[in-house]
Amino acid sequence: MNDTDLTSRAVDAAEMAGSVAAHDLSMIGLFMQADLVVKAVMLVLIFASVWSWAIIFEKRRTLKTLNSRANKFEDSFWSGEPLDKLYQRVKKGKQDPLIKTFAAGMEEWQNGVAGGLPSTETVQASLKQRVERAMAVTINREMVTLERGMTFLASIGSTATFIGLFGTVWGIMNSFSAIAHSQNTSLVVVAPGIAEALFATAVGLVAAIPAVLAYNIFTTGLARYADRLDAFTSDFSAILSRHLDAQDIRSKKVA
Predict the structure, then answer these.
(1) How far lies 184's CA from each of 22, 190, 199, 233, in Å?
(2) What counts of helices (H) and strands (E) characterise the chain?
(3) Helix axes 121-146, 97-112, angle to 10 degrees
(4) Which residue intervals define the domain MotA/TolQ/ExbB proton channel in the entry (predicted)?
(5) Among residues 169, 166, 150, which one has the least CA distance to residue 51?
(6) 178 confidence band (pLDDT: 50, 70, 90)
């Protein structure tokens, strides 16, 4: 090997080192050196990820608070305290879905018995249906409110990876175009562009995975809470039915 070959290799090595140094392969460096379209894709995914985490923390706090309040209210409900007194007490406090459901049922019940307890089975059945309907409408309205943000989590979970993949494909296309123009296929030339492109997919996965997991967890949690509200409605309706049956028995004894 002559001195000319050694000098040529030394120059090539120096150029490769300079090329590597010119490309910052850190996350910030990859973002700053990426194509404008790839940057836009990553910014959208970063925003989606931040918004998803905001929803995740809010839903987690909300479900924990609602279940805690529901436990306390159910303890009061089954403590033997008269329902009229319980209604007057809780309607002045903080309103959560379970208390609103109870209040809707009690309000309809009090309106129905304002002139006295119904004496015929038809009127009694109508009153029970109105109470149950009022509670069901309240449950549906409250669940719609609680489910806000779930569609966003589902959308991010299902589309973020594809958005990131779009950024990757676009970045790789630009990398191949740059290779064609430079007519240099060395790894030093190819690697930075490919890394920038793949970084978009990585950001997409970072946004999608927590969103999918959170969506599944919160869907289960909200379904259980909805079942809890439905069960409470059934219990409340059963109590009213027993009250009406007791009234029938007293009426028959008097007759």
Answers:
(1) 16, 8, 23, 73
(2) 8, 0
(3) 160
(4) 113-229
(5) 150
(6) confident
Q: How far is CA 196 from the centre of its chain?
A: 30
Q: Which domain holds residue 215?
A: 25-254
Kindly report, residue by residue over 101-143, the tens digit of the pLDDT: 999 999 998 888 877 776 677 888 888 899 999 999 999 999 9
CB-CB neighbours of 39 under 10 Å? 16
In a domain, 6, yes or no: no
Instruction: Bin 189: left if φ > 0, else alpha if -120 < ψ < 50, else beta.
Output: alpha
Confidence of residue 18 (pLDDT cuts 50, 70, 90): very low
Does the residue 138 lie in any domain?
yes
pTM of the model: 0.80
| Domain total in the chain | 1
Angle CA(233)–CA(237)–CA(242) in degrees, nearest 5? Answer: 150
Which phi-psi region, left, alpha or beta, contains residue 149 (left: φ > 0; alpha: ψ -120 to 50)?
A: left
In the numeric block, which tokens belong to residue 11?
């120059």
| Position 239 in a domain | yes
Give me the phi and psi of 192, to 5 degrees please: -60, -45
Identify the three-state secondary structure at position 108: helix
Contact 201, 110 (CB under 8 A): no
Return the number of other C-beta atoms located less than 10 Å from residue 152's C-beta.
16
Q: Residues 144-175: pLDDT tens digits?
A: 999 999 999 999 999 999 999 998 888 888 77
7 in any annotated domain: no
State the CB neighbour count (10 A cutoff) for residue 31. Answer: 18
